[in-house]
TrEMBL record:
Site (Important for catalytic activity): D220
Pfam families: Exo_endo_phos (PF03372)
Family the UniProt entry places it in: Belongs to the DNA repair enzymes AP/ExoA family.
Protein name: Exodeoxyribonuclease III
Organism this protein belongs to: Halalkalibaculum roseum
């Protein structure tokens, strides 16, 4: 069994102050894909560095911004940072760790909420990402892209679809992109294990007691190759933990 958690920590230092290592001790994932580190590698808290995990990070050049990481009990046979596009790689958005029988990515897609320029860059990122992801489907190991894609796919993935139809993260062209990713052969593993279930969210605004009222968005995914859907046994969004404005999305696979 392999338990994989995807978690946008909204600042690894802030998450640690709120009990990140307590969550690790209690949940005990085999692999943790981190997004939005908002720290350089030497700024990752010592308590996290003392965990019995191998660490890999791909941080942004801009201080206090973006960044992804992968913590794993098994040492990866190979780690690769980036996607081969300068501006994306400078923002620290894609990290791969290959293991003996599995390939895992931590992904942090750009947000388009700050205006048209960032929305255009988000769409550019998605355009680059699709063929990048596609080539891994023909490999000899199962692959999973874990992370914050900053998109709700369908109307049940967002608490107020009508009001948000023109909002970044729920735009028709973004939702269509997720459909295209799934059409290439990837599976939204969490959703496939919770078909048709409503009120399942992974991110809540800090405003208006959104989490207490469960007015959220499901923007954090495990996008897995078909073998991983077959192997998926249990999928949970750990919303009982208040370490970030996101909750960990944790799936156990029988690998």
């Amino acid at each position: 069994m392999v338990k994989i958690s995807s978690f946008n920590v909204n600042g690894i230092r802030a998450a640690q102050r709120k009990g990140f290592t307590d969550w690790v001790a209690q949940t005990d994932p085999d692999i943790i894909c981190l997004q939005e580190l908002r720290a350089l590698e030497h700024q990752v808290p010592k308590k996290i560095k003392k965990l019995p995990y191998h660490e890999a990070y791909h941080t942004a050049e801009k201080k206090g911004y973006s960044g992804v990481g992968i913590l794993s009990k098994e040492k990866p046979v190979r780690v690769e940072a980036g996607i081969g596009v300068d501006w994306i790689d400078e923002e620290g958005r894609v990290l791969m760790a290959e293991y003996s029988d599995l390939i895992v990515f931590s992904i942090y897609a750009p947000s388009g909420t700050t205006g048209d320029e960032r929305q255009d860059l988000k769409m550019e990122f998605l355009d680059h990402f699709l063929p990048f992801a596609q080539k891994y489907l023909s490999g000899d190991k199962p692959v999973v892209f874990c992370g914050d894609f900053n998109i709700c796919h369908t109307s049940i993935d967002i608490h107020n679809p009508k009001q948000n139809k023109n909002t970044s993260g729920f735009l028709p062209e973004e939702r269509e992109w997720v459909t295209r990713l799934l059409e290439t052969g990837y599976e939204d593993v969490y959703r496939r294990l919770h078909e048709g279930e409503t009120d399942l969210y992974s991110w809540w605004s800090y405003r208006a007691a959104s989490k207490d009222r469960n007015k959220g968005w499901r923007i954090d995914y495990h996008m897995g190759s078909p073998e991983l859907l077959d192997a998926a046994e249990d999928a949970v969004i750990e919303m009982e933990w208040d370490l970030s404005d996101h909750a960990p999305v944790t799936i156990t696979y029988s690998l």
